[in-house]
Write a structure and sequence with these properties.
heterodimer; A: about 290 residues; alpha/beta; Rossmann fold; 5-stranded parallel β-sheet; two-stranded antiparallel sheet; 9 strands; elongated; B: about 400 residues; 8 strands; about 10% strand; extended; Uncharacterised_CoxE (chain B); UCP010256 (chain B)
């Protein structure tokens, strides 16, 4: 299976995603074995972006299911189109069809609303299915998902079993707010995603902000790395780094040490809670910038 | 490029070596079956992989959680190259753990012979209600634990007779089980639904030519409250903690979504130990976990540690935090207030049970208690078993 070729990391770079070796291997393996890949890691390490990049790379559709508490089959798998069904019942009645005939008609595929999971199984070309923040969904939903991920088919009581036309590439992400079941973990390949090391973050900066001064980019990467080691409620993610670097460039700051007050004010790009903003005082900022 | 895996791959012994590796991981706490051995062979066969590549592939397949992911490299090195430590145990939540039995004596000293075990005849909660209305599911639901009414009203620090102690412990455990039982039952007899079930309604309407005369309703079942308990086991709590421990065990043992921690000089998670059915194992585990039992308390530090390491996973929007402590804290009140403030942001409800509150002349004037009061939703006494039983309505609602 060489859909993705041997140098997946290289091809991911071409679509703008800089993956470390571990993650590239994990993706490669997920494509080879056609097994779902579970990505865990702190918020902001780029888990969701992986799926987007992979879809771009494979030149296929990205179908995303955002999980939340209370997510049920009607929102994740399929639902009947009730309005259309009601209209159809009325319309067919004029034609004096029997109740049985009407029933067969309104419980056919035409009246089925495909939600992300069923949609993903119905594609001719295998899509990338992103099941985002699976830890937010309830445990019952995990059980549904397990069934779909192992058999790649969905059973609709009124209609029968719908088999997958193609096996999607499945990426699940979790922020670890809840312990996932062992069954789900065993079904999936696993990868823990760390914050990028400075070299990789630098590369991401250069790729996403081509105009940025090389020296500033280096300083930004080093500063963010040091900041993540501080005791913070919410550590800045890659998106925050990019925002911050863009802000610095926009304000014309060329070196981090140059204008401390301006620098301090830009920290709102990185720190997203009041407590964190208070904890990182100008002194702390100066110390981090000097590192 | 070193290619250690590929050249041997052709030879049959390689499969046996790989099976050995999977066994090695299993010994170290990974949840792996024979299926994984086959999978492991598949992911490294075929391509010329470097060692690093083969390791990454296997890690992806065989690790299932963060702890395993992070320990994998060392275990890989140890097995294939004979370096490093061979046997480590990973802490697996919700899994059986076996520990050195010799340690159990430690816990005995603190809690008495049967302290950490479930009372032998406490197979289920015992409920009594007037006129047998319970059977119809319409009981007004006064919780009455079976016997020893007097014992229930006695301040627990006055219970000194060993037999009475055992009885009180059993009662504490039963009370908790009964609370748990009642709460789960209450959800089952929920009233008619509030949301229209369109699917069923339309089906039914077919017989009436599409007129939805008979509506179908549904109700999302109430999801249970998630319970997080902190039990202060410092020296000042020693008259109470053994009973509270039984109470907590009763709650946590039956409550699907719950978590329990001991607070003394540091924070210890005891959920798995309290859920352990085998009393000997439970004692052993608690003994290991409770080093430092009976010393001073650092409530603020303990709760801060919880916030840093467990809160994200343990708390959600339906969490009730229950703290059992007398509020005698050797740490700083500011630290306690800060930790409680952060805790309160994640948990909608905070209940503090203070055994001293049942004393006649007690006023919560210690610095720690003063610092904590603004964050507490329900502050109650807990010096008698009746006081513990009175907790029920507080746990039923958010």
């Amino acid at each position: 299976m060489t859909e993705a070729g041997p140098d997946l990391a290289e091809r991911l770079r071409d679509v703008g995603y800089v993956a470390d070796e571990g993650l590239a291997t994990a993706l490669q393996l997920a494509l080879e074995l056609k097994r779902p890949l579970l990505l865990e890691g702190e918020a902001g390490v780029g888990k969701t972006e992986v799926a987007k990049a992979l879809a771009a790379l494979l030149d296929t559709r990205l179908i995303r299911l955002q999980c939340y508490e209370g997510l049920d089959a009607g929102h994740a798998i399929y639902e009947w189109n009730y309005q259309r069904q009601l209209l159809a019942i009325r319309a067919r009645e004029q034609e004096h069809l029997s109740a049985r005939q009407i029933e067969a008609e309104i419980f056919s595929e035409d009246y089925l609303l495909r939600r992300p999971l069923l949609e993903a199984l119905s594609q001719e070309q295998p899509p990338v299915l992103l099941i985002d923040e699976i830890d937010r969904a309830d445990e019952e939903f995990e059980a549904y998902l397990l069934e779909i991920l192992s058999d790649f088919q969905v059973t609709v009581p009124e209609l029968g079993t719908i088999r997958a036309r193609s096996i999607p590439v499945v990426i699940l992400t979790s922020n670890g707010t809840r312990e996932l079941s062992d069954a789900l973990r065993r079904r999936c390949l696993y990868s823990w995603v760390e914050f990028p090391e400075p070299g990789r973050e630098l590369e991401i900066l250069r790729r996403r902000l081509p105009g940025i001064d090389a020296r500033l980019a280096g300083q930004v990467a080093a500063f963010v790395r040091a900041l993540r080691r501080e005791e913070l409620e919410k550590k800045p993610g890659i998106a925050e780094t990019l925002d911050w670097a863009a802000a610095l460039a926009g304000l014309g700051i060329e070196r981090l040490g140059a204008e401390p007050e301006k620098l301090q004010r830009t920290l709102i790009c990185l720190l997203k809670t009041e407590a964190d903003l208070k904890a990182v005082t100008p002194e702390v900022t100066a110390r981090l910038a000097a590192e | 490029m070193a290619v250690p895996a590929a050249p041997v791959a052709a030879a049959p012994p390689f499969a046996a070596r790989m099976a050995g590796f999977v066994g090695h991981l299993r010994l170290n706490g990974f949840a792996l079956g024979p299926e994984e051995t086959a999978g492991a062979l598949r992911v490294v066969e075929g391509g010329p992989h470097t060692t690093a590549e083969a390791r990454r592939r296997l890690r992806c397949l065989l690790a299932g959680r963060r702890e395993e992911w992070q320990r994998f490299d060392a275990l890989f090195e140890a097995y294939w190259f004979g370096r490093g430590r061979v046997r480590e145990r990973v802490e697996r939540p919700r899994h059986r753990q076996q520990r050195n039995r010799a340690q159990q004596a430690l816990w005995r000293g603190h809690l008495g012979d049967e302290a950490a075990s479930e009372p032998a005849d406490a197979r289920g909660p015992r409920l009594e209600s007037a006129a047998g209305a319970e059977a119809e599911g319409e009981s007004s639901g006064r919780l009455i634990a079976s016997r020893r009414q007097v014992l229930r009203r006695t301040d627990l620090r006055h219970v000194v007779d060993p037999a009475e102690m055992a009885a009180a412990e059993e009662l504490a455990f039963r009370l908790a089980s009964a609370i748990r039982y009642r709460l789960s039952r209450r959800q089952r007899i929920a009233p008619r639904g509030r949301r229209l079930d369109l699917r069923r309604t339309i089906r039914r309407s077919l017989a009436q030519g599409g007129e939805p005369l008979r509506l179908a309703w549904r109700e999302r079942p109430d999801r249970p409250v998630r319970l997080v308990v902190f039990l202060d086991v410092s020296g000042s709590m020693q008259h109470y903690s053994r009973f509270f421990l039984q109470f907590v065990k009763g709650l946590v043992g039956r409550w699907a979504e719950s978590d329990a921690y001991l607070l003394h000089t540091r924070l210890v998670r005891v959920t798995d130990a309290l859920r352990e059915r085998d009393s000997l194992k439970a004692m052993t585990q608690l003994a290991l976990l409770a080093e430092g039992f009976g010393g001073g308390t650092r409530l603020g530090e303990g709760l801060a540690a919880f916030n840093a390491h467990y809160a994200k996973r343990a708390l959600n929007a339906r969490s009730v935090v229950l703290i059992l402590s007398d509020g005698y804290d050797t740490g700083s009140p500011e630290a306690l207030a800060a930790a409680l403030g952060r805790l309160k942001k994640r948990a909608p409800r905070l209940i503090w049970l203070n055994p001293l509150l049942g004393w006649r002349d007690y006023r919560p004037v210690t610095a720690a208690m003063q610092a904590a009061l603004p964050y507490i939703d329900h502050f109650a006494a807990a010096n008698t078993l009746d006081a513990l039983a009175a907790l029920e309505p507080e746990l039923a609602t958010l």
